Structure formats: structure tokens, C-alpha cells
Amino acid sequence: MDWSAILSNTAQGLLSPATMAFALAALGLAMHFGFAGLLNFGIAGFMAIGAYGYAISILTFGFEWWQGILVSLVASVLFSLLLGIPTLRLRGDYLAIVTIAAAEILRLLFLTNAFVDVTGSADGLSGYHNSFRAANPFPEGDYGFGPWTYNNIEVWVLILGLITLAICAFLLLLLMKSPWGRVIKGIREDEDAVRALGKNVFAYKMQALIIGGVFGSLGGIVYALPSAVNPGVYVTSLTFFVWTALLLGGAATVFGPVLGAVIFWVLQAFLSNVLPQLVSSGILPFISSIQASTIRFILVGVGLMLLVIYRPQGILGDKKELTFVK
Amino acid sequence: MSSSSAKLPGKPAAKTIGLHVGTIRPGVPKVDPIITMDNVSRKFGGLVAVDVEHLEIPRGAITALIGPNGAGKTTLFNLLTGFDKPDTGTWNFAGKSLAGIPAFKVAQMGQVRTFQLTKALSLLTVLQNMKLGAKDQRGEKLMFSIFPFLWKAKEQEIEEKALELLKRFKLDTKKDDFAASLSGGQRKLLEMARALMTDPVLVMLDEPMAGVNPALTQSLLEHVLNLKKEGMTVLFVEHDMHMVRHIADWVVVMAEGRVVAEGPADEVMKNPAVIDAYLGSHQDTDLGTVTGRITLPPKGKK
Ligand SMILES: Nc1ncnc2c1ncn2[C@@H]1O[C@H](COP(=O)(O)OP(=O)(O)OP(=O)(O)O)[C@@H](O)[C@H]1O
Ligand SMILES: [Mg+2]
């Protein structure tokens, strides 16, 4: 077993564009579910909008990278409105069904051959990096140390990702500590009670949906920044991975989703390195090393189940909340 | 066991009189109505839950809405507050038509209600529950919320007001507990206190006394009487006729969706239509005995 390689790869999981993308998307879900009680099972759709919106604006419309980001954000707001207007008046579980369906529709639209010139169909999109890399303030060379050594392009992606994540987390913190956040949490508990106190519940829920959606699409952009947009990524299992990260850290917290995303990716990196090696060194019998690396997804599922049953409030969640079964 | 009602002071609170115009009958006009309804009806499938031809609620008084289970009292509350839409009818509050006005706007106009099944916001603290009721907090707007200096001062004001109300309702020691940890009766109190945070014009309480212990019932009645003193109008649903008798200036009786009688408490309770609606066959029993929390006297003693 090559422990140094395993550990070094695991350490990289701590700080990667994927980790930050998950953290952003999980923050969006925290806004939706943890604070506002909106069951969004279509976070992968919001991430797809971010990634495709960014890549398509650059490739098809020749926009600058930052214009691409703006286009993505506007698109995610429109998507939230489209989802929310018909469903936010209905009971919570309807939103879950609609969001999961909407994310699938979106994915299939990006995947279909009909729009291959724009979306790249099954090949996805790539080669949209010129404008972004031209704006890179870091001169060529290596940065960092040990497992965290990056070239100037990777550093640029990471720095932008970190800044975005920090801004979003800070914003969410401010929002949830404000009277606005109080109304949002009240809606999560009982929207009729909040309505009876004169608050426009629909408008609040829509605002929460939009904010969380923007976070999700920012996550999608960060995911797409380093290399390419691949339609195989934005599937329903992505949604459930982000949910795992959220529940792991604590749904009704701001730092929980970030912590959850980090743990998720560190574990993923660790398992995807260690499991095949366990097979090749004969410790894990009966399976091939390819099978071994998919076992980690089974473990994610089992982990999610255990989490929801035994620690539903997550690592950073308030223990007191557990005392009260809803 | 001694009854709660026995603890009420012998004399009912001073009543506001002269509320109506003309002879007392269902739908009698009021001198100064705050709510006026015409032909308000609501059907659930084949069941007519509410069918009110005409009803006026007097301003500045305490009106009790009574009637047997399933009479349509809660449904009428829902219609009046925008939580449900009637099939027909018009109604207005303080001169403004309320048809098609959403519930949150009705509340903003000063008509605030509580629910028969208490709605405490479980995972908010008692104090947060209270603050949520406050009006005119700019910080509740998304754009202002991220700049604390724009709403901190108001928040301080709101907190003081909330603490004062909590003290009145004997909940001040619970202020930092989750509302979920309160008892059923305490939740009723919290819900009522929270409604008062909105500075309402009309307070609509759906069975505020249900599940509240006798000692607390007494102070709750005082609270309700205080609301009137402070110039608010109160409309409440209650099954215990002793309490109704004690504080209500005016009583509206519903049965099977209709207003079958109204008038001052003592007169209404003698009304044959009311006795019929409540008692059916037990017409020789006193209404207070059947509806109040009082042990029935042994047969023959009466
Ligand atoms: N959402 C609903 N769907 C169907 N029927 C309903 C609904 N709400 C109320 N009803 C019916 O309407 C009638 C009136 O109900 P309502 O809740 O207004 O009674 P109430 O006077 O408040 O009774 P209680 O004193 O028991 O609270 C009842 O027969 C009830 O079954
Ligand atoms: Mg009722």
C-alpha cells in the first residue's frame, strides 16, 4: 500500500474546486431547506445552469468570463421564478417533486442532440478558458507546498472559488442573523402562523429560493472553471451528494454545509484511493479494483442513512433541536 | 374538584352596552360596526359550513362567538381573515372590503387572529416568536437586512416591548427556550402575546382558554378585558358559557353555519333557539352547567 500517495491525494480533497463547488451548492440548500424549509431536490439543475450558462455565454455569444458569470446568475434567478411561481403556494412536498423533475428536464435539454451546436450534447463543453485565464493576476509558476502545490491557473481558480465561498457564507450569516432571517425561519416552522402576523410568506419563500439558487449556480460555475462542462455530472445523484454534505455538516447552520462539503470530498478522495489499493494488496477479497472504487458511493448512501437516523441535525447543528421531534 | 368557573369573581366585568340599533335579532345592525358581513357562505362538498346572511361585529367591545362543535365558527374566522375563500358574499373590515385580500394583508390592516390548534413556531425561541409579530421592522426587508445598523435600534425597541408583554403573560422566564418546550397552555398564551405584538385593531381569538388551567384562565380573562380598555376590539370563540357570561359584551350564536341568535350574554342564554342548538333534549339543564367546566350537580338537587 502506498500510503504517501493515498494521504497526499486525500489532502488535496481538502481544497479543490469540486469541494468549493459543493460547499456553495450546499450553502444554497441550507438557505432552501435548513432555513426556509423548502425541499429542493433539484440543486443539480441550479448547478447545471451555472456551468452551462457560463460556458455557453462565452462560447456561443463571445462574452467575457465575468459576463458569463452574470448571465448564469440571471439565468438561475429566472429558473427560481419559473419553479417558484407555480409551486411555492402549494404544500412543501410538491416543491420537492417539481424541483427534481425540473432538474432532470434541464439536464435532458442540455444533453439532447437538438441543441448540439450550443450545448455540445453528450460531449459537453470545453475550451472556454481564454478570457478567464487572460485575467489571471498570478504569473506563471508553482504556488503552495506539499500536496497543495498548484500552478498559476489552478491558484486563480482556487482563489476565486474561495472568495466566492467566503462572500456567500458571510452573506448567509448576515441574512440569517437579521429580522429577515427570523421571518424565514418562522416560515419553516409554520407558514400560516407567519402569514397571520402580516408577512408576505410567498415573497419571502421566493427570495429564499432565488438566493439559494444563486449560490447553487455559483457552485456550478466554480465546478466548471478549471476544465470542462460534462453533462454526466449534473445528474440526480449530484443532488443527493450535495444533500449528504449539507446534512453531514448541519442543515440549519452556515458553516455546516462548508464543513460537510470538505468532509465529503476528503472522504471521497480517501476512499477512491484506498479501496482499490486494498484490493490490489489482497486485503479486500472477491472484488475487482474498479468495483472497489464504486463501493464508496454505496458507503455514501449508507452514511447518509445513518446520519439522518442518528444525527439529523448534523455535526454543527444545535443539539437542543433534536429534543423536539416535529 | 372545584370548578374553574367558581373562582371567577361573583360579578361579571362591567359590560359595554348600547351596541345595537333596533330590536335584538340575528343580524341586528350595530351603532359602530367594525366588521360587516353579507351573504357569506362556504360549502365543503355538500356540507354548508357557513351561511351568514348578515352580521355586524361592534367596535371597541368584546364579542363572543359561540355554538356547538362544527357550527362553523373556525370556518368563519378563516373566511374573515383571508385564510379561506367564501363561495359567496361580501364583508368589510373598518369600511374596507376584504374580498380577495390575502391573509397577510388582512393582518397588516390590524385584524389579527390566533388559531384553535395553536401555532407556536417550535424551533424559534419564545422571544423570537414574539419579535416576529412586530410591525415596521425594516430589517425584515431583504435589502435592509444585511445592514444591521439600519435595523438595530428598532430591534431594541421591539425587544423591550416583547419582554414587557412576556412579563404580562408570565412567560418572561421562558424567553430563551424553544417554543417547542412550552406546555400547551403556555403556547396559547404565547400565541396571544405574539398577536398583540402587531398592535392589532381587532383581535380574533379561537378558543383562547382551551387547555389553560383555571388559575391562568382568570388572568387570561383579565388580559382580554385589558385589550378592550386599551381600545381594541375582541372577537373570540369559546365553549365555556361561564366565561362568555363573564367578559362578553355581546354574544353571537352560530349553529349549523347560521347565526341563530345574538345579544347580550344573559339574554342570549335564555333564547330558546340557543338552548335548542346546544342542548337538544336536555332542555331542563342550565346552559352554563353543560358548557362550563363544572361538575354536573347530582340529579334532583337542582
Ligand atoms: N377543510 C374542511 N374540509 C371539509 N369540511 C370542513 C373543513 N373545515 C371545516 N369543515 C366542516 O365544516 C363544519 C364547521 O367546522 P368548524 O371548524 O368551522 O367548526 P367550529 O364551529 O369551529 O367547531 P369547534 O367548536 O369544534 O371548533 C364542520 O362540520 C366541519 O366538519
Ligand atoms: Mg373551531
Description:
Chain A has 326 residues and is mainly alpha-helical. Chain A has a domain at 17-235. In chain A, 71% of the residues lie in helices and 2% in strands. Chain A is built from 15 helices and 2 strands. Chain A has helices at residues 3-13, 17-35, 43-59, 65-87, 92-111, 116-119, 130-134, 152-177, 179-189, 191-196, 201-224, 236-249, 255-280, 289-310, 319-322, and strands spanning 142-145, 148-151. In chain A, a hairpin with a 2-residue loop joins β1 and β2. The model of chain A has no long low-confidence stretch (mean pLDDT 91). Chain B is α/β, with parallel strands linked by helices. Chain B folds into 2 domains: 1-120 and 201-302, P-loop containing nucleotide triphosphate hydrolases (Rossmann fold, 3-Layer(aba) Sandwich), CATH 3.40.50.300; 121-181, no CATH class. In chain B, 33% of the residues lie in helices and 21% in strands. Chain B has helices at residues 4-7, 73-80, 103-108, 126-132, 142-145, 152-168, 184-196, 214-229, 241-247, 265-270, 272-279, 287-291; strands at residues 33-44, 47-58, 62-66, 88-93, 96-97, 111-113, 202-206, 233-237, 250-255, 258-263. In chain B, α4 runs parallel beside α7. The model of chain B is unreliable at 1-7 (pLDDT under 50).
